[in-house]
Design a protein that fits this description.
The protein is of the alpha+beta class and about 270 residues long. Helices cover about 55% and strands about 10% of the residues. The chain has helices at about 5-15, 35-45, 60-65, 70, 150-165, 170-180, 180-250, 260-274, and strands at about 75, 90, 100-105, 115-120, 130, 135-145. It has a six-stranded antiparallel beta sheet with strand order 1-6-2-3-4-5. The chain is rod-shaped. The termini are far apart.
């Protein structure tokens, strides 16, 4: 997230909730508490689920710095020369009259002596602009910059990611993935998978070739069977014709037959007996 994007998102958040009293995770819980409005800010602006402080206090966000805050923030200790920027999160350590500390969202216009901030439960449970000295402010949660140390290709990738609505935490994870040199390992896995795919493709081609040969053989057998069947049918028809002729001849009386036909008929009967 660039500085300009952070300011725009912070302005949008403030304009939405300024003058209200919010709880977290809903208005029925921890209504008007300083940590509630900051948790809502973290969720809506940075896209991560704000964790419990672990101490039942605002100060726990500094002392424990619970996950996943580290995905999008880095801790910056308060110093005399530091001027926090709009969108940072200011954290107060406990003092004698307040064992819980305090937390707020830094506004624009801060100086070395005054911290302008939006907060609940400082002078009111309403989310409003406050002006405080730096007394008891232990430090700030500063949004991590992921732009300055990125290559041109990574910036292009970041633009694509933002277009698809991924969160700051998602982007940070991708950048860390590359910095931790996990990408070469993934590239090796991809190469291995491509090699396996090539082997499988080769085997598939062999199987397809064998299957084609088997299909051709089956078609040849089917053609032979069909041809034999047709020939058998033709022979059967021919036999039936001759049988019919023979039976018709038998029905004729001997006195109607010539001597030659009688001799022929006798020979047929004689051969039939054999």
């Amino acid at each position: 997230m660039t500085k300009k994007e952070l300011e725009q998102k912070t302005d949008s958040f403030v304009s939405t909730y300024l003058g209200q009293s919010k709880g977290y995770p809903d208005d029925s819980q921890y209504w008007g508490q300083c940590l509630s409005i900051v948790k809502l800010y973290i969720k809506e602006v940075f896209g991560i689920s704000p964790p419990p402080s672990g101490t039942n206090s605002a100060y726990g966000y500094w002392s424990n710095f619970p996950n996943p805050l580290g995905e999008v923030f880095e801790k910056v200790l308060n110093t005399d020369d530091l001027i926090p920027e709009k969108g940072w999160i200011a954290i107060w350590q406990p003092w004698s009259s307040n064992p819980y500390g305090h937390i707020s969202i830094v506004a624009d216009g801060s100086t070395k002596s005054l911290c302008k901030n939006w907060a609940q439960n400082w002078t009111s449970r309403t989310f409003q602009l406050e002006s405080n000295r730096y007394t008891n402010i232990i430090g700030f949660l500063k949004p991590k910059s992921i732009i300055n140390d990125m290559t041109d290709n990574e910036k292009i990738l970041l633009g694509l990611i933002n277009e698809n609505g991924l969160s700051e935490g998602d982007i940070r994870w991708l950048v860390d993935l590359k910095k931790n040199q996990t990408v070469p390992n993934l590239e090796k896995k991809v190469s291995d998978l491509e090699s396996s795919l090539k082997d499988l493709t080769s085997r598939l081609e062999i199987l397809e070739s064998e299957n084609k040969a088997n299909n051709d053989l089956i078609l040849s057998y089917q053609s032979t069977i069909t041809s034999a069947k047709n020939e058998l049918e033709e022979k059967s028809k021919e036999i039936q014709i001759w049988k019919s002729r023979y039976e018709n001849k038998l029905k004729e009386t001997p006195d109607k037959l010539s001597a030659f036909e009688l001799i022929k008929l006798g020979l047929i009967k004689l051969l039939g007996k054999k």
